[in-house]
Structures are given as structure tokens and as C-alpha cells.
Amino acid sequence: MVPIVPLDTSSPSLARPLTTILPPTDETPSFLITSANKSYKHQYANIYFVRLRILRDVVEENARRRWQGIKGDPILVPKVLEVEKSQLCYIVGTVYMDMPLKPNVMEDIARDNSIPPPPPLSKFYSPDDNIMLEDESGRIQLVGERVVGARLVTGVIIAALGIETPTGEFEVVDICYAEMAPQPKQEVEAQAKMDVDAEPQTDSWIALLSGLDIGSASPADAQIQMLVEYLTGEEGGPKEQVSAAQISRLIIAGDSLAPIVISAKSDSFEEKDGKKGRRYGYDATSFSPHPTLSLSAHLLDIARTMPVHLLPGETDPSGVIIPQQPFPRAMFGAVSTYGSFSCETNPTYLRIGSETSGELTRTLLINAGQPLNDMLKYVPSPPNTPLSLLESTVRWRHMAPTAPDTLWCHPYFSADPFLISQTPDLYIVGGQQRFGTKMIVEKGEGDVQKKCRLLLVPRFADTGTLVLVNLRTLDVKCVKFGVKGMSESSEDHARADDASLSSTQLNRNPPT
Amino acid sequence: MSTQPIRDYLTKQLLIEKNIVTYRSLSRILALNVNIAKNELADFHATDGQNLAATYLLSGETLAAQKRLDEDIDMDDRDPYDDDADEGEDGEYVPQTEIVLVGEKELESVQAQFVTLESFHVYSLSPSAIRDAGLLCTPTEIVRDLDKTKGAELAAVVGRVIGADVNVSTKPQPGWGGRKVPPAPVAGSSKTPAAGTSMVKKEEDAKPKEKAKPEKPKATGKLDFSKAKTKPVKKEEEKKEKPLKADTKRKAESRAPSVASTIGEKVHAKMEESKKGSKRKSALASDSEDEVAAKPAKPAKPAPRGVKRKSALASDSEDEVKATKPAKPVVQAQSSVRVRKGVVLSDDEDDAPARKGKGKAKATAVDSESEAEKNLRAMMDIDDDAVTRASRDAREPEPEDDPMEAIIANMSDGDSKPAPVKRKPKKVVPVGKNGLKKKRIVKSKTRIDEKGYMVTEDFSEYESVDEEEEEPAPPKAKAKTKSTTADTAPAKAKPAPKPAPAKAKPKPSGSSKGAQQTGLASFFGKSKSK
């Protein structure tokens, strides 16, 4: 018997700080695919064209400043094909990675269809990769240690300083990016900093979550249950309850539902009749055979206490092309009646205004991790981490440069919505293996500082981690939910369910 | 410290029924604060339930979190190419609170891992040790049920922290992103129109009517006198006593003899057929009857009325047909225009802009111009039979109000056939739950007919529309509906013979409905001309 100190039950009633969602601006557009851009007829070339046209000026300007007055006095060559041999110059264009391992649609077409396609590779990277720079005129191959180590991916707009070699390659000496996009000044920030210790309890926090993976073979039911209890402010002692009460909203960055298990699919391939029932059997959680029902029940529990933003992710039943469109609300049943529950696109900008911490507006850029996971395939991983690559995207001013090359995206005609035209305060990426965060700061003109908090939100099903961010100070903390001394998942339980289910099926089958 | 009811409950659940009780289920069922419930569980475990298994919840900072920090430091500065390799690649250290659920057995070892223990309480009690953490979720069902039924009051008692911005609303939150402001909140949900109409009509029959022709006034538009207004008024009048009606009728006659006479003729003809064809007029017979018979009688009126009457004409007595036939031409030739324009109908379709779903007589009278008022007054003077008749007429003729066409239609089809065809385009589009008009979409259905042939049919259907789509959709949808619904086989056959007999051949063989066929015909036509 363990002695337990009774909890203090006289704690005052807690209230959540209020935050509001502000309308999107031109710099932080909505990713909804509307009737205006719904057409799928367009060629993807337009995206590259728009991207280069918009970022070229910025990159050129940066390059001029960076390489002005260095020895050799480099000049800008407007077209990559007009580079003159053995003359120091710089060129601006779009990076194209020519990688033997990268999936190629031509190979897909040429492939023998009777052979099942090889499984997708986890990495495209190989030592044989060629890095090219292209613009409207053509392509030139970039060589040199500098460019090899620069963790470039297809679609990035860069300026490269160098000399064309006799073999027609471009020996790169230095590289210049667009660097961080402008950020609106937060006048209140300085003033708000003054009273940091004044009332830290009034700060509003937001909770970030990703990868609930409801419906997977080994569901993290107990952890999710604990998570819900924590968010509603019931769990733990008064101290936990106070910190939970500071959370003003929850953002779920994708992967809430597990993908349909492939093995179950192939299993049932032979016996087509039992296909449906079988699959439900495999997917059963301890709550309900339907992961969606289970998810919506959890969402309802949370949405009763705070606003929830739900993004679709890679494994969710949503479109595969970026931007993924919001879930239909109705699929979540009762929770769809809550005005404070909103389904968002992936990626999405959220502008959150907080009254309690002094008229503060924070811009959040959130995605479910597909762009980052795709970019990671391009670069060797030991030196590069997700966080370093994410930082690069901010400096490239592009959140998903590999779209449309290897990341499927909507064929936009007149815009590249993935350009980051305003540096967000918080850049949140879900669906990650590990937690990570970093504040990146860049000196702008004058004494203006551009600050961006990068956040990698780990998959909850694997790590049990909930990430909390203070909207005012951009401080981060984690809450990790775990179960010890019991089997964490209800796998055995689900198996037992499954066995009983299939046996009942067998019983049921003969008559039909 | 614990009270008797709590002990009783716990004893019953744990010792007798062998259920798992978590602090949440206890707090919900007995309406306790969660913290009190946690203490109660601990108390019960310490006294009565010594042989019960408890699960504990610990929270605080653990050694593992600090180890993680060390790892991160090891990983620093791996990237030689990083331009500003000043910080560790995996970013900053972040304080991590760990919340762990643990069984009694492992409690001490887990407790040892915590550097600081911030809270520690009993999570649940169970008859035997819990092997599978998933089992702890079973009482959640009770919790959810109670949360659902008791709602906010219970949440306050229990100690849920509820944000002030959490709100339940049937319509999505106004704004952006996934949310859009519904353009017409009134028409938004299916409930509201029904409520609105019942307010006007104060009768049950209002609802079926609305359902049959959802928001009729909306499509036809502005002052759809004949439809939106006359009906409510008519009904109100119906409620009044008959003598009163007779009076008004007489008044109308005296005031406008020519109009009245034609109306009178119409009325007579109508009265006769409608008495047989539909029960509508019988409803007029008496008040009480009206009330009782209203439900079955009314729904039949709006949509299938034409059909009914037709059957009455066809099957019943010859006299009926004769009576109506001569009556009609007279009406149209003499004064149909006047009747329609001046008094009863007020040239409905042409100048009728879109009106919202609540087609209330009063509302429209207020915001419409003097003409509308005049019409209203005139209508009030006319006895309801005439009004009914007129309102029906209004739907029949073409929007252009061509009397000749109407006559022809009446003569040939026994007055009802053109009606359904022409009515359709006017029919107002039902409104989806998001408050937007539903879109008419052509779908094709393939079935096998009785001869065993596979027949593909196109049919159109209303489908709710996404928030953004609604703008460009209407013109297209309209065009489509017209082509598919109005054009039946004969209509389609017409273009085919024109181009060339040789080419036309395959088309009649197809002889089926469908937009594709028309498309094909126009294609051949074009190539011919070129």
C-alpha cells in the first residue's frame, strides 16, 4: 500500500485564455482549392515558372549584396546558358536534382506491368546524383564541394557563384538563397517582454499533436485517453490542471487515422466475400470497430473544452495531393456541431490573436510533414536532420520545393502557394519521428529581427508526446504520456476481438 | 472523509459487479469534482478495498528526459556545411513533463525514475490487476454518455476547463479556412424554412407543401404573387367562414365585371373538376373538415395536382372535358392577359427576382413596390376559389404568357401535360445544409429493362454544393437541366433528321434520352454545315 497525499481540492475554478482566429491575408493565403483554381488541366511547368519569376528578384538582390566587391568582380549572367567560360559570374535558377534512384514516370510507363512495382525507396540519395541549375533557357550542371554539401533539393531557387569549367560544368564557389521572408513587426513584443514574470499564468498556450494513428494494429488507446483527460483539465494534480487550463486551442497536424493495413488487404484478397468484415476486424480498437468513430469521440471530448483544428495528413482518408483539403465535418458526427471545431487544409496558415497577452498576433504555418519527409529523401541523413532541412525551407522561402517533382501537388496555374512570402512566427510540422525545435533568427534591415520558431511534432502513437507552445514568448514544453507495467497497446485485446469476430463470421458465412 | 453514497457505489461496482472504476467515471456518476474523486478512490483503496488493484498516475520530470538532453548535445555540430553552425542541429532543450500510468506492482520502480514528482494520484481501481492499458478506456463510455446528457453543468462540477469560445452551433463558424459564412442563414437548415412557413400558415399542411416544392418563391423571384402569396392568403381565407368568402367574391365581381365573369367561368369549371379530381375543394366545405382533412388533402395539391386532374378529365365524364375545354379558350382569348397581369397573377415569372425561402405574404408586401400592394389588395378582394385557380394557371402557361400557346397546350393535352414540363425549370432549387442552393447534376443510371436490354438513362438530381462552387455552377446547371429534363425523346429526335438521313439513322436507333446524344447530334450538324 502506497501512502498517497490527498490532492488539494480547493483549487479555484480555472478558465482558459481566449484566442481568436484572424482572417487570412495575402501573405498567408488560404489553401482551399476553390472553383477559381480547381482545374486539373494545367501543366506543372507553370508552378516552376511562377516560382522562379517571384524569387529571382529576391535572390538576385541578395546575391548582389553578398558578392559585391569580392575579388574578380562577378557579374550576373541573366541566363544559365549564356555563361562564358573561365569568367567568374553568378547565375540564378531552379535547382534540379538528377537522381538515378528518383522515381521517374518514364520508367513507370516502360515497366512491365505484370511485375509488381518495387516498393518506394526511403531515400533517393546516391553518390551518382547530379545537381543542375535551370531556368527558361536551359540547364547547367553544378559541381564543386560547396554545392554537394549544400543539401539542395529539386525546386529551390538559388544563385550560384562560380566559373564554367572547360567540360561545360559550372564550378560553384558559393551559393546564395532568398533567405527569410519579411515578417511583420510585432510592436507589442517589446512591451510584452517587459512583464514577462508579471503574470505568466495568463499566457495562452496552444497544444500541438500529430500522428494519433487511431485504428492501427497497436493503438495507443490508453495514452490517447490520458491525453484527452489532460487537455480537458481533469488529469493530475492542481499543477497539471493549471497548465492544462492555459491551453487555448489544440491543433492536430495530420495522421489522425492509421492507413488501412496492407497485410489485411492482401489477406482478404483470396477470400473476397469476407473482405469487408475481415478488415474491420483487424482495424478494431477497443472502443469501436470504426477508427473514425473512435477519433470523433475523442475529438468531441476535447472539442467540448477547447477549439480544435484538424489537419489531414498522409495516412488520413483525404486526397494525396498537397494541399490536402479539409475533412468534411460531417464525418465526425456530433463534434461537427461545434463551431469551435474546424477542419483545416494541409498545409494551412493560422493567424491567432490573443487578447490576454496584449493584442498579440501570431502567424502559424502548419503542415502534416509530407513536404519535409519528401525532402529528406533527397539528402544524406546523418549530416542532415529534419530540423536543419526545415530551417533551409524557411531560408529558401519555400515550404515544399520538391512539389511537383516528387511531392504530388495541385496543378496551380498562376501561383505557387507554397512560397513563404511572410515568415511565420511558428512553423509547425507534424508526422515526425522525433520532437525537435529551434528558434531561427535573422537580422533584417535596421534592428528588425526576423524570428521563427521551428517545431517538429512527433507522432503521438510512437512517442506519446504533446507539444505546448506559449503564444507570447514562443516557449515550448512537452508533455509525454506513457504507460508502465501494462501492455501499452491493446493489441492482444484487439487480436482476441478479431479472433472472436472471424469465428462469428465463419458461423455466419455458411447460410449466405 | 468519504460519504456513504460514494462508498456504496464503489463497493457495488468493484466488489459486486467487478467493474473498473476510474476517477472520471466516479466523478461523473456522483457529480464530484475530479480531484475529490481521485481522493475518494485512494481512500476507498486504503480502507475497504485493500485487495483491489489500483493504477496510479504520476507526473513530473523523469531521468529519461534528462538523458535525452545529453543525447542531443552529443549530436551537436555534425553538419560541416551548415552556414551558421552555431547551434545544435536538434535544436533546443525543452522541459518535458512526463505523465505515466502505472500499476501497483511497478509503482516503486517508476517512482524512482522521477526526478521531481509533481502529482501522484489513484487513476482507477479494479477487481484485479490490469494487464492491458486499453481496458482502462472501458469506463470512458459511461463518461461520454454522461457528458453528453448532462452537458455544461456537470462539466463545471466535475472540473473540466471549458473555453469560452467553445460553442455549439448548427452552422459552421463564420470565417475562412474550412469555414465559410453561409450566405443565407435563414434558408440554411432544413428546419428553418419549415418553421417559417408554419408561422405563416399555422397549419401542419404547410410542411408537406414546402417539401414538395422547396422554396418555390426563391426561384421565381421577386413578387411571385401567384405562388408565394396567394397560397398563404388562400389558406387563411379558407379558415374563415364561407359567407365571408361569398361576400368577397361578390365584391370582386361587382368591381371588375369582365374579370369577375371570366373568373367565374373558370371557377365553375374548376369547381366541378376539382371536386372529383382532388379533395382540395372539399376542404373548403367546412372549417372543421378543413382542419381534419388538411393533412391528407394538401400534400396532394402541389406537385401531382396536374396529374390528378388529368386523370379526372380523362377517366371521368365527358361533360367535364367539354365544360373545361370551351371555357378555357374564352378565358384566354378574352381576358387572360388582363386577369393575369392586372389582378390575379401580376405577371409572375418575368419580373420576379430571387426571393428567399420565407415567402411570407406580409414580408413581401412590405418590401415590394406599390404594384405588389395593389396586387395584394386585388387579391384580397377575390374569392379564394378564383385565386386558387389563378395560381394554378400561373404555373401552367409559359413565362412569356403567350395566350395562344396556352390554348394550344390546353386543347391538346387536356390542360395538364405541359404543366409539369414547364414547371420544372421554375422549380426552386432546394437549399443544402450549408445554406447554398443545391446544384442540379445530371447522372446516368444503367439498368436492364424487361426485355433484357441494357438501358442507360440520364436523370438529374439535386446535389449539395461546396461553399466555393456555387458561383459559377448555376448557369451551367440550368442549361443542363433544361436539356435533359425538358427534352425527351421527341425533342431529341428532331435535330437528328435535319442534318442528313444517312447520318441520322444511328441516332433514332439509340432513341434514348441523354445529354450525350444531343452532343453527338450537334457535332454532326456542325460538320455538315462546314
UniProtKB/TrEMBL annotation, chain A:
InterPro entries: DNA_pol_a/d/e_bsu, DNA_pol_D_N, DNA_pol_delta/II_ssu. Residues 492-512 are annotated as: Disordered. It catalyses: DNA(n) + a 2'-deoxyribonucleoside 5'-triphosphate = DNA(n+1) + diphosphate. Residues 43-175 form the DNA polymerase delta subunit OB-fold domain. Residues 206-436 form the DNA polymerase alpha/delta/epsilon subunit B domain. The keyword Nucleotidyltransferase applies. It is an enzyme of class 2 (transferase). Residues 500-512 have a biased composition (Polar residues). One of its GO terms (cellular component) is delta DNA polymerase complex. Keywords: DNA replication, DNA-directed DNA polymerase, Nucleotidyltransferase, Nucleus, Transferase. It is found in: Nucleus. Belongs to the DNA polymerase delta/II small subunit family. This is DNA-directed DNA polymerase. It comes from Mycena alexandri.
UniProtKB/TrEMBL annotation, chain B:
Gene3D superfamilies: DNA polymerase delta, p66 (Cdc27) subunit, wHTH domain. Keywords: DNA replication, Nucleus. The keyword Nucleus applies. The keyword Transport does not apply. Residues 435-445 have a biased composition (Basic residues). One of its GO terms (molecular function) is DNA-directed DNA polymerase activity. It comes from the Eukaryota. It is found in: Nucleus. Residues 69-90, 167-530 are annotated as: Disordered. Residues 200-218, 233-254, 265-276, 386-397 have a biased composition (Basic and acidic residues). Residues 71-90, 458-472 have a biased composition (Acidic residues). One of its GO terms (cellular component) is delta DNA polymerase complex. InterPro entries: POLD3 (IPR019038), POLD3_sf (IPR041913). GO terms for biological process: DNA strand elongation involved in DNA replication; DNA synthesis involved in UV-damage excision repair; nucleotide-excision repair, DNA gap filling. Residues 482-494, 501-515 have a biased composition (Low complexity). This is DNA polymerase delta subunit 3.
